[in-house]
Amino acid sequence: MSFAYPVARGLSRLGERRLVPTTLTLDRVQFELISKGGTVQFYNLKTKEKVDVPDSEIKKRRSVRTTSRGTRQERYAVVADVDVDGKPVRMFKFVNKETFDSLHVPEVS
Fold this sequence. Notes:
By secondary structure, this protein is mainly beta. The chain contains one helix and eight strands. It has a domain at 39-108. Helices cover 6% and strands 52% of the residues. A hairpin with a 2-residue loop joins strand 6 (72-84) and strand 7. Mean pLDDT is 77; it is low at 23-36.
């Protein structure tokens, strides 16, 4: 991946701009869903807090729909039912396909 940024120093004319190339190499960026010893972190929108849920309590869900153009669209999510103040709350976290496939939990429809 290459980037260029404008340089303003040493220019002879007013308003003249020159781009100096800069190279930034990203070998691999990895997003880790499972972080703390078999837990998945969700964000509770009501309490505005992060909640850690153990792997044993999560399930994965695949949503498939057909768009108006006729193409197939898939979304991948992790679902957990958590008790917050004595009330059951279902939490969702959208993930990419690689993370979805790497999770070894049951899939619900």
